[in-house]
Design brief:
By secondary structure, this protein is an all-alpha fold. The protein is built from 4 helices and no strands.
């Protein structure tokens, strides 16, 4: 792996780290606004614990803040996976 590629991966990982931090802070703020009961309902959507009918009913009842929290959690999961992939790819090329 060239130095340019290593620099690119390092920059991408740093940018992802910043994005993850921002999303974690946003998720924390939204969770505090909503309270434990509503957060657990939204978490149930993320973890797919509802049957099809219940999920449709829950999704229809979500307010903006709950939708934004769900969005933040989904994006966090994706970004953390991407960051992990970059780290693994870098390690394979170093060894």
């Amino acid at each position: 792996m060239s130095q340019e590629e290593r620099d690119f991966l390092a920059g991408a990982a740093a940018t992802l780290g910043e994005s993850v931090g921002q999303l974690e802070r946003l998720a924390q703020e939204l969770s505090e606004k909503l309270g434990d009961e509503r957060v657990n309902i939204v978490r149930g959507l993320l973890e797919q614990v509802y049957d099809r009918d219940d999920e449709a009913e829950v999704r229809a009842s979500l307010c903006y803040t709950e939708r934004k929290l769900l969005w933040a959690w989904v994006r966090l999961k994706r970004l953390k996976g991407l960051r992990l992939s970059i780290g693994r790819g870098s390690m394979r090329n170093i060894i």
